[in-house]
């Protein structure tokens, strides 16, 4: 007998069987067979015998002890008598997220695209943060050094419609409108988010060609959860994107993608204060003015394998104009570059990886060219991803800008932005260079262990020297070492437990910017994550 709560065996509520349609004939048949009435609402107007309901429930729990440079709250220090620029650096984050999602799908999707899909996903997060200093979590120092918050976000709300099949292999055209996930490249370097948009997509030549055309109107985000806030009017920030994928090009086993992305931002007259009281637009850097900018990203990437060598790589050129260089107030050209590659080699149950990333930096803040590369909304799956220190943690630019960070949380670029979620892109930044090695060990079908060691630098330090009024700042950020373990006790994704530990061993540049009297030898980031999925 089918049990609705069973995620492992066939279940109508996870799309294994079609749902019943409450026609008169169906109700009479059920009456004769002594079965319960069909309770699918009639107002949905469903017809046919190929409608499926796929319901999903997720519990995502995060516990995260960490350390990073924290400034002393000048007006109201947590410990009276503190007279250093830097305070205690330990902090704790706890976040519990519940996700409920449902898809109503027409069509047998085992071998062809769905005819129609309606999908909604809501996320409720409660989070708690405790830090040792005031004015880190709130602008108002009287509000203390810990914070509890919660928010309900709409992460997906879309309709997907299948226009036509174009071959007997089910090559197709489809369209999707609403709040939906977008990822512009293989690893999420440029844009990886769930946003309001229109997507036209399809494939050709037995799926060897795939294409996407996308228009996005960016939604506002909740400050502390990062979830979509549909109660606010969308931003004056629009994105047009088109890409094409070709399998087995230029060699068999390798997929290539070429893309063009246009980011149009018209928030020059906007003043945005986040939920904690900190200004995010304009960013409190340079002349303290918001900006209008137009940026075109030209991209090319590959993912797959060449013989025994696995390879994933992505390159971008960012070209455009910024109406307000925050250092001289004049219009500036945007000319910046990005390249990342991750080669890997498999030996039985082991995979050995390398990592290379270069994002150009700007060395002269006062000229008419901004050469620091910045993304639209990065969330990279690269070089350890959120288990590495530099990607997971955001480092405040103490003494160089107010409410400005060197890098963003779950981001790898040193962009000097006020906020990845709510702020503007910034192309006057020091850039990023990374060299790394790593390995993945599939010890058993239940256990995977991963290790990473990355060496990071700023590409250019001219902007840092200007903002900190220093004559020299070395480029070296330091070494980022991490180890992570994943345990799947049921051999499936229904129960997944992750634990990781990462340490940043500061280099000369990081020490110059952030070394305090305690002379911290390293900073750490520990992550415990439990994901339960129905």
Rg is 25 Å
CATH architecture term of the largest domain: Beta Barrel
CATH overall fold name of the largest domain: Porin
Mean model confidence by pLDDT: 93
Major pleated sheet = 18 strands, antiparallel, barrel
Run of helices and strands: HEEEEEEEEEEEEEEEEHEEHEEHE
From the N-terminal CA to the C-terminal CA, the straight-line distance is 19 Å
CATH classification class of the largest domain: Mainly Beta
Structural domains: how many: 2
Describe the structure.
- By secondary structure, the protein is mostly beta strands.
- The chain has 2 domains: 1-49, no CATH class; 50-533, Porin.
- 5% of the residues lie in helices and 46% in strands.
- The protein is built from 4 helices and 21 strands.
- It has helices at residues 24-33, 389-392, 462-468, 508-514; strands at 51-67, 90-106, 116-130, 146-165, 172-183, 192-204, 209-217, 237-246, 254-266, 272-273, 279-281, 292-306, 309-322, 332-347, 350-359, 369-370, 432-441, 447-457, 476-487, 495-506, 523-533.
- The protein has an 18-stranded antiparallel β-barrel. Strands 10-11 form a two-stranded antiparallel ribbon.
- The longest helix is centred in the first third of the chain and has 10 residues, at 24-33.
- The radius of gyration is 25 Å and the shape is globular.
- The mean pLDDT is 93.
- This is Alginate export domain-containing protein.
- Residues 15-36 are annotated as: Disordered.
């Amino acid at each position: 007998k089918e049990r609705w709560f069973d995620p492992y065996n066939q279940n109508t509520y996870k799309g294994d069987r079609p749902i019943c349609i409450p026609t008169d004939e169906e109700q009479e048949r059920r009456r004769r067979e002594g079965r319960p009435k069909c309770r699918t609402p009639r107002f949905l107007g469903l017809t046919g015998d190929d409608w499926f309901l796929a319901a999903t429930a997720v519990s995502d729990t995060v516990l995260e002890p960490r350390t990073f440079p924290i400034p002393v709250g000048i007006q109201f220090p947590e410990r009276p008598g503190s007279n250093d620029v830097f305070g205690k650096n330990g902090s704790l984050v706890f976040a519990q997220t519940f996700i409920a999602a449902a898809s109503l799908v027409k069509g047998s999707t085992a071998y062809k695209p769905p005819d129609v899909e309606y999908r909604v996903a809501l996320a409720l997060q409660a989070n708690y943060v405790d830090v040792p200093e005031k004015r880190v979590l709130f602008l108002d120092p009287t509000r203390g050094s810990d914070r509890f918050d919660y928010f309900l976000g709409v992460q997906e709300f879309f309709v997907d419609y299948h226009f036509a099949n174009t071959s007997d292999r089910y090559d197709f055209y489809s369209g999707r409108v609403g709040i939906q996930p977008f990822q512009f490249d293989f690893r999420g370097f440029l844009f990886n988010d769930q946003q309001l948009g229109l997507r036209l997509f399809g494939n050709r030549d037995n799926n060897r060609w795939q294409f996407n055309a996308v228009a996005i109107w960016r939604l506002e985000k909740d400050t502390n959860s990062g979830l979509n806030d549909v109660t606010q009017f969308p931003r004056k920030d629009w994105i047009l994107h088109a890409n094409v994928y070709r399998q087995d090009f230029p060699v068999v086993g390798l997929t290539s993608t070429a893309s063009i992305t246009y980011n149009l931002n018209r928030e020059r007259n906007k003043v945005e204060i986040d939920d904690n009281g900190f200004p995010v637009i304009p960013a409190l850097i340079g002349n303290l003015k918001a900006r209008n900018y137009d940026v075109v990203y030209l991209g090319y990437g590959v993912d797959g394998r060449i013989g025994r060598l696995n390879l994933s790589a992505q390159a971008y050129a960012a070209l455009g104009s910024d109406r307000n260089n925050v250092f001289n107030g004049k219009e500036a050209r945007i000319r910046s570059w990005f390249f990342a590659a991750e080669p890997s080699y498999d030996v039985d149950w082991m995979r050995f990886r390398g990592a290379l990333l270069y994002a150009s930096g700007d060395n002269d803040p006062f000229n008419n060219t901004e050469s620091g590369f910045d993304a639209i909304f990065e969330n990279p799956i690269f070089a350890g991803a959120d288990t590495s220190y530099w990607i997971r943690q955001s480092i405040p630019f103490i003494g160089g800008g107010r409410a400005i960070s060197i890098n963003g949380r779950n981001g790898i670029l040193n962009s000097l932005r006020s906020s990845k979620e709510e702020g503007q892109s910034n192309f006057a930044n020091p850039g990023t260079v990374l060299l790394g090695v790593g390995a993945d060990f599939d010890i058993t079908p239940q256990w995977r262990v991963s290790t990473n060691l990355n060496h990071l630098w700023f590409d250019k330090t001219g902007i840092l020297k200007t903002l900190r009024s220093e004559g020299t700042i070395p480029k070296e950020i330091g070494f980022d070492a991490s180890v992570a373990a994943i345990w799947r006790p049921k051999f499936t994704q229904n129960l997944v437990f992750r634990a990781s530990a990462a340490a940043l061993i500061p280099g000369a540049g990081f020490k110059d910017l952030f070394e305090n009297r305690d002379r911290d030898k390293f900073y750490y980031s520990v992550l415990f994550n439990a994901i339960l999925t129905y």
